[in-house]
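The protein record filed below.
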Amino acid sequence: MRLFNRLLAALLSLALIVAGVLVVVEVVAERLGGGPAVVDWPHVYDWARRTPWQQGSVRVASILLVILGVLLLAAELKRSRPSRLAVRSSTTDAAYTRRGVAATIRSAVSDVDGINSASV
């Protein structure tokens, strides 16, 4: 899950960076007296002014954005497996890693007579 969260964060940050650069390019192009540089935003702006909130395309887009937001929230709120298993101690903060516990159990089981192989 950690890999998924990191990949998702990287994609979202990349999308925000691209959107920010596009806004800067469009603002500079408009201030210099040119037309739209990359995105035909006057056409999009005119469409948005003519379109009521009750139109189907606006509702579908809104529903999709809400679903995407809920999925992102659920992905972030889902607890991941702990990477460290805490040891009860009143004096120190000690913990075992999952890999270390698996290796220790595999080693202990493999040392028993009659055990050919073990997987943990």
Q: What stands out?
A: The chain has a mean pLDDT of 86. The radius of gyration is 27 Å. Residues 65 and 71 are 10 Å apart (CA to CA). The first helix runs from residue 2 to 31.
